[in-house]
Amino acid sequence: MAYLEPGQKKTQSVQAKQKLYSHGNVITVVIVCLWFFTGETACVFPWFPFCSSSDVRRRHGQTPPGPSQRGGGPQHRSHGRPHCRAEVTFQAEAVKKTDVIFVAVFREHYSTLCDLADVLAGKILVDVSNNTEINHHKESNAEYLASLFPACTVVKGFNVISAWTLQSGARDGNKQVLICSNNQEAKRIVAEIAQVMGFTPVDMGCMSSACEIENIPLRLLPAWKIPIFLALGLFLFFFTYNLVRQVIHPYIRGQKKFYKIPIEVVNTTLPCVAYIMLSLVYLPGVLAACSQLYYGTKYRRFPDWLDQWLRHRKQIGLLSFFCAALHAVYSLCLPMRRSHRYQLIETAVKQAMEKKTDVWVEEEVWRMEIYISVGIIALGLLSLLAITSLPSIANSLNWREFSFVQSTLGFIALLISTLHTLTYGWSRAFDENQYKFYLPPTYTLTLLVPCTVILARVIFSLPCIQQRLLRIRRGWEKGRYVKFVLPSATGEYSSGETSSNV
Amino acid sequence: MAYLEPGQKKTQSVQAKQKLYSHGNVITVVIVCLWFFTGETACVFPWFPFCSSSDVRRRHGQTPPGPSQRGGGPQHRSHGRPHCRAEVTFQAEAVKKTDVIFVAVFREHYSTLCDLADVLAGKILVDVSNNTEINHHKESNAEYLASLFPACTVVKGFNVISAWTLQSGARDGNKQVLICSNNQEAKRIVAEIAQVMGFTPVDMGCMSSACEIENIPLRLLPAWKIPIFLALGLFLFFFTYNLVRQVIHPYIRGQKKFYKIPIEVVNTTLPCVAYIMLSLVYLPGVLAACSQLYYGTKYRRFPDWLDQWLRHRKQIGLLSFFCAALHAVYSLCLPMRRSHRYQLIETAVKQAMEKKTDVWVEEEVWRMEIYISVGIIALGLLSLLAITSLPSIANSLNWREFSFVQSTLGFIALLISTLHTLTYGWSRAFDENQYKFYLPPTYTLTLLVPCTVILARVIFSLPCIQQRLLRIRRGWEKGRYVKFVLPSATGEYSSGETSSNV
Amino acid sequence: MAYLEPGQKKTQSVQAKQKLYSHGNVITVVIVCLWFFTGETACVFPWFPFCSSSDVRRRHGQTPPGPSQRGGGPQHRSHGRPHCRAEVTFQAEAVKKTDVIFVAVFREHYSTLCDLADVLAGKILVDVSNNTEINHHKESNAEYLASLFPACTVVKGFNVISAWTLQSGARDGNKQVLICSNNQEAKRIVAEIAQVMGFTPVDMGCMSSACEIENIPLRLLPAWKIPIFLALGLFLFFFTYNLVRQVIHPYIRGQKKFYKIPIEVVNTTLPCVAYIMLSLVYLPGVLAACSQLYYGTKYRRFPDWLDQWLRHRKQIGLLSFFCAALHAVYSLCLPMRRSHRYQLIETAVKQAMEKKTDVWVEEEVWRMEIYISVGIIALGLLSLLAITSLPSIANSLNWREFSFVQSTLGFIALLISTLHTLTYGWSRAFDENQYKFYLPPTYTLTLLVPCTVILARVIFSLPCIQQRLLRIRRGWEKGRYVKFVLPSATGEYSSGETSSNV
C-alpha cells in the first residue's frame, strides 16, 4: 500500500481539480505532500482541466503488481493528455490560496506541518493517510491530526480509494469514499468534492469511526479466512482418512500403492470437501428456520456464530464449487495416466493368455455411466450458481430471481450431488471388504450432513410447518396478539395485522 | 420476497435518514410499519447518521438464501456501527414531525391507517409495497392507497430495491429506483431522497405505470423463458432421435445397448442442441437484413416475433455455450467409463488371439484428430463470446469492440463448429449402413440451419448487396427522394441527405 | 457504428427529455436529425416522461450484432411503455423552443443546417457525431461545426455512449460521457443533462480534445494488439520447433507421424506459450525494481517500452491463462483419440504374444502422476487470477487484496508451473536421444525466462535489498538529503521526511 500513496494523493488532487474545474467549482486543492519533494515550496497544479494524472503516474513509475490492472476500459482516460504544468510556490502561499487541504503526509510527519498552524487555522484538513498495520496506534491518524491542529476542521476520507481507480476514473464498484468528521459542513464540502470526482461519498459519522475507516484498506479478504480454514481442515481430515484406506492398508497387506497419493487420493478427497461444504451452505438456513420455529418469531436475534455462518455462505459455496471443479479435472485426468495404461494392458494380456474374451460386467458399467452423468449435471448446476454470484450478474437480478437461483437451484444441486455420491457408492457400504481397518468407505462419512439438510428441508416443506414458517417470516409472532387486542381485532386479524408490517 | 420486506422498509428509512442527515437534509422519514410492533406507538429513528441498518437486520435475522450474498465488499458498511437508538413515540406525533412517509404496510392493511387520514392530509405517502403475485389486484397498490387518502400525494417507489442492496449500500448495477406519481413536486422530493441514498431515480411517469413497477420484483427471468423452452424442445427431439438410432435399432437387431443412454446418447444430443442454438443466434440478423433489403428501408418496424427473437439472442447464445461446454465434459468422460475399458480389453484380446498386431486405420485416426482439435478451437471461441457477454465486461467495451467480438468472432465460431460437424460426419452421410430405419445420421439434420445462415452471410458480403445494405442501414430508403425533391436536390444528394440522419 | 446512430441520437434526446422532465428541468431537446425524415419539419417529442426509447428502436429495427445484448436487466426499462407521440413541427419553430440542440447529423451534412444559422444563434449545439475511421478529417467534427456556426457554442459529447446503454439505462461501467467545449457554462449545462440521464460526465477540457473523443468509439481493443501478436509469434516459433522435432525428424527416419500435427504438436506448443507469457507478466516488475534500485529513486520515469509493457500485463496474463486452459483441454482429449486406442491395443497384443505380463515402469508412473497433479494445481491458481481480473470483482477488492492475489498468488502459480515443467521434463534434458537434429527438448527452452524471474524475485527478497527497495518505494531517494538539510534534520530524519510524501 505504502509505495502507492504519493500517486494516490497527487492523482487525487489533480483529478479533483480537473473535475472541480469542469464544474465551475472554485475550491482550490493544494497538495502539501509535493512540498517535501522540493524542500520549501509547494506545488499548485494549474487550472488546465485536461491535465491528467497518467503522466504523473508515469513520472513516478508506480506499477500495480501482477497481470491485472484494475478495471475495464481505462484507455478512455489515459490517452494523449498533455502534461500538466505544476506551478510551484511556497507552502505558506499555497495554503493561503485554498480552503480544503489534502494532508498527504505520514502520521509520523504531521509535526512538520506545525509551523503552518497559524496559516492553516480555520481551514479544512483532509486526512488521507493509511497505516501499515491494523490498529497500529491507539488513536486514529485523523484524530491525532485534529489534536495537533485544534484550529482546523479535520475530515477523514479518500484513503480507501486506490491510485488506479483514481487514475482510470471511478468505474463500477468500489466507488464509495468513506468520510467522517465532527463538522457537518466540512463533511458536506468534502463529500461534494468526492461526488464531483465521480465517487459516491458515504457518511460514516463522526471522528470516532475514523479508526475503522483507516483499517479498511489493510484488510485482507476477511470474509474468506474462516471458509478457507474450514476447507483446509476438511481436506486434511479426508486426505489422511483416504491415505489410510487406499495406501497404508494395502501397504500393510504388502502392496506398494504410493503412486496413488498425488492424484487418486487427492481425487477421492476433493469431492468429499466439495460435497460437505455445499451442504454447510444450506445448513445454517435450516438452523435459522429451526430457531424461528422454536421461538415463534423472526425478531429474535440469532446467536453470533450462526450470524457469522450465514454471512459466510457465499464464500463457502464458492470454495465448494472450486473443489468440485478440481475434482472434475482430476477425474478427467485419470485415463491419461501411465498407471491406467499399464493396468489396462496388464489386464488385457492376462485375459488374452487365459483366452477370456468376455470381461463385461453389466452392473459396473451401469454404475459408472450413471454416476458420471449425474456428476456432470451437478457440476453444471454448481457452475450456474458460481456465475450468478459474480457481483455484476448478482446485481442484475431482482431478489426473486437471485433467491430462485441460489436457493432453489442450489438445493437441487445438493440433491443431485447426493445422488452422485450414492450411485458412486452403490452397494459398497454393505460389502465388508470395503471396511479396511474397520473404517467405513469415505463416501458414507460425507453423507451425514447433506442428508440431514435434505431431510430438514423436506420436513419444512410439509404444509403445516411451511405455513407456520411463512407466517413467522411475514412478521407473525407467537402469542403476539395476546399483548394487545384492538377492539375490532380477532386473533386472526391482529396476527394478520402484525404480519402486515412485513 | 415477503419475509424480506420489513428489513427493506426499515433499512430504507434508516439509511435514508443516515444519508439525508449526512447531507444536511432535513426531511424526516417515519416508519409507520414499526408502529405495529409496538401497538399504539411509532418509531422515529434519531438523527445519528452512523446509525446503520446492519443491526436492524441482525435483530430480525433475515437471511438471503443460498451461498451468494449480493455484491462484492459489503464489509465496508457492515462493521462496528453502534446500534441506533430508536425513539418511540405515538404514531400521530410521529406523522406530525414529517413530510414524507414510507408506508411499509401490506395492501390489505392500508385501512388501518385511515384513522390517521386527517393528520396525513397534505403529506407525501411513499408506497413501497409489493404483491405476492403478478397483477394480483385490478388496481395497483399505490392507486388503491391514493384512493384511500385523497388528501395525500402518493408516490410509488423503492419496491424494486432489495434489503441487501440497501444494507450494503448501493453498488454497481440495479441501482435504479423506479418512481411514479401524478404530482411532479412529490416525485422530485422522493427522487432526491433516492439520489441521496446513492440510487439513480428513474421517472416512470404517472400513477398508471405503478402496476408495472409493482410487477417488476415478481418477475422470474422473463428473458430466459423462451430460450430455455426452445433448448428443452430441441433436446427432447434429438434425444429421442438418437435413442432410436443408437439404442432401439440395435435392440431390434438383438443387441442390448441400453447402457449408452446416460452418457453416449446425451452426448450426441447436446452438440446438436448447442450447434442449432448457435445458428439461431445469427439467423434473425439474416432475416432482418433480408427484410431491410426487401423493403429497401430500415425504418419499417420488424414483425413482433422477429423483434422478440432479436432480443433473446443473448440468452440463446449463452444456452448454446452451456450445452457446448457440457458436450465437452461428456466427451472427455468417455474414456473414463468401464464400458470403454471393457471394449478396449475385448478388442485387444480378440486381436491377440487372432495374432493381429496391426489395427491402425489411418483415416479414422485423421478424422478424429481433426474434429477434436477443431472442436476445441470452437469451444475456445464460444467461451470468449460468453465472457464478453458478462455485464461488467460488455460495459467496458465500446460498441465497435463489442460488435466485433459478438458478430465477427461469433460467426467464425459458427463456421468452425460447422467444420467440426463435417469432419465428425466425414463420409458417413453417404454410407447407407448409417441409415438405420432409413433415418439419416443426426449430424446431417443439424447442418440445415447453420448452412443457410452461412450461405446468406456469404451472399450479403457480395459487394453489390453489401453496399445496398450499408446504405440502408445508414438511413437511405428506396424511392425516398421521389417523395420530396428539394430544389437543389439530385436523387443522390437527397439519398445522402436521408442517410445523414443516421 | 454508423447504422447505429439514429437510434443513438433519438433515444438520447428521448431519455434526456424523459429524465429532465422527471426532474422538473425545463430544457427542451430537439432532434434536428428527425427533420430529414420528414423533409421540412422537425420532431419535438412531447412531455410524456414514460415515453421510452425502446419503441423508437423497434420502429427502426436496429439490432446489436451477435448473441449478447449489452447489460444485465434491461427489462426494467423496455417493458410495456406506451409509444411516445412525437409532435412534428417545422424545424425553425422547433429550434426556437429550445436552448440545447443535439446535432445528430453527419459531418458532411452540417451545411444543410446553415440556413438555420440565425435561429440557432446563441444556442448550445451538442455535436454527437462519430467518424467512420480514426482521424478521418484534419479537424474534428465539433471544431468544424463550430467554424460553421460561430454564433453558437458547440459542445462535443455523448458520442461514446452506445444506443443500447441509452435504451437500457446507464448501468455499471461505461457510464462516462466525455464532454469538451471552450465554453464553461455550456459544458456545465450539458454535463448536467448527462448527470440527469444517469451518466457521469467527464470534463475533457477544451475543443482541442474533441478529436480524441471522436476517436474513442472507433478503437478496437487497442490494449490487446501487442499481447495478441506476442502470443501468435511465440506460438508460431514453438509450433515449427515442435513440428521439426516430432514430425519432420521421424519422417526422415522413415516414420510417418503427420497425424500428430492437429493435436499433439499443438498441445506441446500451447503450454510453452502459456508458460513464457506468464513469466513475461512478472518480468517487467523485476526490471522496474532493478531500475529503481540502480537509480536509487522511484521518481525517475521508466523508458516507454517498459511503461507499455507494464500496462499490458493484464492482457498478457489473460492470454497466458487462455493458452493454459486450451492446453488442459487438449491434454484431456489425448486418451479419447483413435491413435491412443490403437497404440494401446497394439502394445497389449504385442505383450500378449510375448507372454509378458509385467509392463509397469515405476518411474514413468510417478513422473506422470506428479506432473499432472502439479499442472492441475497451477491451472487452478491461474483461474483464480483470471477471475479476480474481471472488472466487477477487481473493483470489489481493496488494493491490498488485489495485489495479494495478482502478485503473490500469481508468482506462486509461476513457481508451480515451473515445477510442472521440470517434472514433465524429468531427466530427459540429459538423454541425448532427445536431442533430435541437436535440438534440445522444447521444455528446456521455455525454462529460461521464468527461471530468471524467479531468481530475481529470490534475490529481491534478501533482507538488505528488500529493505532498500521498500524505502525507495516509500519515496526515499539516494543522496536526497544532501540537497537540503533542515536545521533540525539528520540524514535519517530527512530521509524519513522524504519518505513521508509517500
From TrEMBL, chains A, B, C:
It catalyses: 2 Cu(+) + NADP(+) + H(+) = 2 Cu(2+) + NADPH; 2 Fe(2+) + NADP(+) + H(+) = 2 Fe(3+) + NADPH. GO terms for molecular function: cupric reductase (NADH) activity; ferric-chelate reductase (NADPH) activity; metal ion binding. It is a multi-pass membrane protein. One of its GO terms (cellular component) is plasma membrane. Residues 272-415 form the Ferric oxidoreductase domain. Pfam families: F420_oxidored, Ferric_reduct. Residues 58-83 are annotated as: Disordered. This is STEAP3 metalloreductase. Keywords: Copper, Endosome, FAD, Flavoprotein, Ion transport, Iron, Iron transport, Membrane, Metal-binding, Oxidoreductase, Transmembrane, Transmembrane helix, Transport. GO terms for biological process: copper ion import; iron ion transport. Its cofactor is heme b; FAD. Belongs to the STEAP family. It comes from Apteryx owenii (Little spotted kiwi).
